[in-house]
């Protein structure tokens, strides 16, 4: 057993998605596309008599993390440091689950493969209702297109072969679990239409365009988001909403050009990695 | 059309493999496992009236690169700068094919997805006989396990969730095309055995162990390689041979400890990326 191990997991903003429930959480998930971000979460796991989860210095209850520790039979303290806010659509819970899986596998020498660890973290997220597609995207990095839902054994992934500067402004929180528990039929129809668009033209421009249309069609925009997207469009930029959080994101200098003071990062070339 | 685009593709040493020919080059390929390397190839593509390929300042004929340019209808000059020698088992031709695909897609705005670009480069390598599994591994990064052969539409990939310092010494060249054109039945049996071993225990130690056994069973070791592996083993290190080149590689400080003066890099966390 090692003393500790640390993994970095990129943040992930989903631009559009459709929900695909299944009784088997390794098969449930979402289709869609998003951007992984150089801003992310660093997760350190060390053996401990009592299971504890700490985010940015504060003890916190994150069900998927506990679930992952149980799946790996890993009695541990998990300490996460995040550059991104929780509950604002950046996949922080997914990052914590995936980072915990990678780091605990190393510390406790569980000898699981990458796909097995991704499946464990994905299933934990699905069971908790905190996400449907962040984990598999965060394991791949780049600009993932999720063609088929589920964990690594059943899903199908592609990607937009590009990279970009990304700006974002979080206005507030939105509960993924609440939205997913509600009526998702209209949302999923809009998500399938957006996916067809990006499969036809896998570029950043098409991704942003499809994302903005999805946010409107799914009727998830709040007034601050609507205003920010309009402001960016007015300066010839492209912006949309992070699914699911009250967060606006834009490519390049879209939000700065529109007078906002955004956080700035870029798309992340790699998936989750041990440090 | 853009003026130029540059992609970086990590090097890749295969530790073991089995060959799986198919009339369809997008389905042909290899099973096996290897290490992608932070030492790699930078490929710049710019539009040009005449197709030219340059490696480290010298014009060179690399069939898979020309094949990729034709597939993407990209009349271009390709300029590659490699940290790794050609023909020594580092996947340099695969890196050039894949880097050309990513960069040409961007320059000529061909709107292909990542998987489509990987498929084009993979098929080009297979057709030229210069490689069977490097391209899909170099597109993924990390320490790829190739569970099923072929391009992205048909293959299955996993990975060893780890990273490591890597040392290597190239002694000379070995023609991949010559070895693959010969009798590969014994080699493939040894490769399948090695794959079972790493599926059971996806760790770096098991990878090195399976690779060394494969090199012996496949009867590909030359006297300098045999001596170097013994020297590293004598100082409690693990070393094996890069498939296919007269190159020895080791984890950590294996070769330095044994008195060699190796090149040093680490496993690469990401697959091919546009710069």
TrEMBL record, chains A, B:
Gene3D superfamilies in UniProt: 3.30.230.10
Entry's EC annotation: 2.7.1.169
Protein keywords: ATP-binding, Coenzyme A biosynthesis, Kinase, Nucleotide-binding, Transferase
GO terms classed as biological process: coenzyme A biosynthetic process
Catalyzed reaction equations: (R)-pantoate + ATP = (R)-4-phosphopantoate + ADP + H(+)
Pathway linked to the protein: Cofactor biosynthesis; coenzyme A biosynthesis
Any matching Pfam family: GHMP_kinases_N
Superkingdom in the source lineage: Archaea
Molecular function via GO: ATP binding; kinase activity
InterPro entries membership: GHMP_kinase_N_dom (IPR006204), PoK (IPR012043), Ribosomal_Su5_D2-typ_SF (IPR020568), Ribsml_uS5_D2-typ_fold_subgr (IPR014721)
Record-annotated GHMP kinase N-terminal domain positions: 69-142
Region (Disordered): 13-33
Family membership noted in the UniProt record: Belongs to the GHMP kinase family. PoK subfamily.
Function: Phosphorylates (R)-pantoate to form (R)-4-phosphopantoate in the CoA biosynthesis pathway.
The protein, known as: Pantoate kinase
């Amino acid at each position: 057993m090692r003393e500790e191990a640390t993994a970095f997991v990129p943040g992930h903003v989903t631009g559009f998605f459709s929900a695909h429930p299944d009784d088997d959480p390794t098969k449930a998930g979402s289709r869609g596309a998003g951007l992984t971000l150089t801003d992310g979460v660093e997760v350190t796991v060390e053996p401990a008599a009592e299971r504890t989860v700490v985010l940015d210095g504060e003890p916190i209850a994150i069900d998927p993390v506990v679930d992952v520790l149980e799946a790996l039979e890993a009695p541990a303290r998990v300490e996460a440091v995040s550059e991104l806010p929780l509950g604002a659509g950046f996949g922080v819970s997914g990052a914590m689950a995936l980072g915990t899986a990678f780091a605990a596998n190393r510390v406790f020498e569980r000898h699981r493969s990458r796909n097995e660890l991704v499946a464990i973290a994905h299933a934990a997220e699905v069971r908790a209702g905190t996400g449907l597609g962040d984990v598999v995207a965060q394991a791949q990095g780049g600009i993932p297109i999720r063609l088929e839902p589920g964990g690594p054994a059943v899903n199908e992934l592609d990607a937009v072969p590009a990279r970009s500067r990304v700006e974002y402004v979080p206005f507030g929180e939105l509960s993924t679990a609440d939205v997913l528990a509600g009526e998702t039929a209209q949302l999923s129809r809009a998500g399938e239409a957006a996916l067809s668009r990006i499969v036809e033209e896998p570029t950043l421009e098409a991704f942003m365009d499809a994302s903005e249309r999805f946010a409107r069609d799914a009727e998830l925009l709040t007034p601050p988001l609507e205003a920010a997207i309009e402001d960016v469009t007015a300066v010839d930029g492209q912006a949309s909403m992070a699914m699911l959080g009250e967060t606006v994101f834009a490519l390049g200098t879209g939000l700065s050009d529109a007078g906002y003071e955004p956080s700035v990062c870029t798309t992340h070339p790699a998936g989750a990695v041990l440090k």
